[in-house]
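Figure caption, in words: inputs first, then the predicted bound structure.
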Amino acid sequence: MSTQVAHPEAPVFPIRKPAFAERFRFIRPTLPPFETVTDLYEKVYLDGQITNSGLVGRFEAAAAERLGVRECVAVSSCTSGLMMVMRAYNLKGEVIMPSFTFFATGHAAAWNGLTPVFADCDPDNWTVDVASVESQITERTSAIVAVHLYGNPCRVANLQRLADRHGLKLIYDAAHGFGSRYQGCPVGQFGDAEIFSFSPTKLLVAGEGGLVSTNDKTLARLLRAARNYGDLGAYDPELLGLNARMSEFNAALALAGMNLVDRKLARHNEIAERYTAGLTGLPGVTFQQKDSADIHTYKDYSILVDPAKFGISRDVLARQLLADNIETKKYFYPPLHQQMLYAQYHKPEKCPLLQTERITGSVLSLPVYESLSNETVDGVTAAIRMVAEEAKNGAYSNVAYA
Ligand SMILES: *Cc1c(COP(=O)(O)O)cnc(C)c1O
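Bound structure (pyridoxal-5'-phosphate present):
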């Protein structure tokens, strides 16, 4: 007799044993061996130079080499990096960005007093739709902020042409993109600047941290001031900066973690392929498309669940999977234009965001991390198939859902 108790939010039907006897973690970053971090950090610590000594500079140099760019400026987070890039470029007016992103993208604009203008996303690769961006350009537009969603590179060439044609800055939120490649070239080389995140859910983990990657030397100089209150040493700040330096300890984590990125990237791609293979052909389930010449990091792996074909909604599926001890996320739902802070900027008559609403309303993110075993991945796809079968047989017909 089963003594398993379903999660309180989960549907009570069907009554059966959960697919997994125990809950496993949705995310578990693989960290570098502790000694590799302490070896780097020890000297800094013993010297009593725990900020502004050498590790941040070493990390910046290593990142610039890997990414193939002139300048990398390490900062406290991707959010602060985005904020400071917008400030350093002295952007005004409107900034066009996808609504389908994490809210930090919007926050960076709002903190600068800029008006976020939301563009729709591409129905296949889910990054910002270039035609939709174009339709939103006005005389008040100063920049485009595009997001390499889950690490899937944006339509870089088309975005660059559009930005050039209209004289706009092009900034990439590359929070998910450390390790991504667009047509063979590392993400980090594109637009006016790209900003990475090293917070614990990303591929390269520094505890907390971010990095601005750019070929614009003037921008890099301003950012070095901006992260240091705006001051470059004259005790007379050149711009309204922040304290947004990366600490030496975070730099030690980032440096040690760089060695793990390629292995993680390969494993994330294996897991993504395994999920896709395991779920292909299941009615109502579709996948994010990527260009075969690009490299995706699969920072997240998500499917779309069409209730008309799958039999139940994404939300009911998520609840049942939780009862099956499989944690999922809805990255990124609700989209920005449906959030309290951002609804005011949404002009449905100007830009209806149909794809964004369709995709975010049906998106379900599955666990993906290096140490996730093939057995677990197969268990997740088997559970989703089982729920689909149960749904077809009406097992969830009594579940009230919107
Ligand atoms: C995580 C994330 C950020 C914020 O990164 P932090 O380093 O935590 O500030 C920004 N944009 C996107 C798309 C993200 O997923």
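The mean pLDDT is 94.
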